[in-house]
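Memo to structure team: turn this sequence into structure tokens by end of day. - J.P.
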Amino acid sequence: MRWIILLVLFLARMTMSFQFQSVASAAPFLTSELGLSYAEVGTLIGTYLVPGTVLAIPSGLLQARFGEKRVCASGLLLMAIGGVALGLSDNYLLALLGRVVSGAGAVLLNLVIAKMVADWFVGHEISFAMAIVAVSWGVGISVGLMTQGKIASGLGLNGLMYVVALSCVLALTLVLIIYKAPPSANQPHIAGPHLPSSIFPEFRIAIACLVAGAIWGLFNAGLVNFFSFTPEYLTARGLTSIESTFFTSTALWISILAVPVSGYLVHLVKKPDFAICLFSALTGLTLVLLAVVPSAALISCVMAGVLMAPPIGAILALPARVTPVAQRAGAIGLFYSCYYVVATIGPTIAGALRDVTGDAATPVLFGATLFIIVPIIIVPFWSLTRYATLRD
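Reply from structure team:
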């Protein structure tokens, strides 16, 4: 049953990245039909993640109050409503409002799916399962890249947003029909108006979850920097725009294939923390090679796609490994609250460094630095969870 549940949650989370990508895919239509500037389009893209900075911890409280399935369904419903609102928009402010609504739903969905997968797979193949769920983000973006431009050309901007909203409704239907909580997580939810602090782990483990969120934020900021700034860097070093995009997308597709395989291998060898440290550092060093030796760009991108895969599932499993079921929603809320802050700030710093230095290689090197910092940041996590029961 847990593999059927995992497939449903994979598809549900894939709709999130499919919706995230829709604004970027529709950028030419947003500028021509709504008259938006590219700065406004960029704001619409980033706005999707902003609600996470304030909704991550309340999401854990909502899960404890109403249950995971209701929160998951609510997240998908908000995503659908936001998608329809964006389709109906005829100006920037309405489009921004629709994006905020859908982004809020995406936050609820992202966090509750992490809790659902943890409930079903703790004590089993959790690193592998988390890796499978993580790769849904890349799959959704890839599907969006391949289809959304054509949909917008055929159905228009409004039609694209309605198709995206429909995908959220279909995922909502699957969750409502198929998902059920595992027996180990069948605890009565709190019915009163006040929620006790017991849904959060003890102070030491709570800090550890924040540290784990910082690790995930640094890792993702490194990924975003790589996929966002590498094409420009390679073009500046003499490659054509087609070659630059191809090399970068090659790393994306390799990582999509490598994440579940490496996640399963990490589960088999029972060394998740070792995988986080080793492969994060190697990914950083590979990006240094990319920045220093642009002639080896294809080799560097292929290596990066392979090396960035193993830590993903292991990092996502960190808070679930050290918290019991009753505290897992609060722990994951803490984890993602820190993640959203770090992941939002990282690319902003990279862009600022690019403006200051005027060198296209600077963001790539900054991304490499973020990956290399990960093995250092995990040390306090070990110290804080030294006496916690690790379950993988």
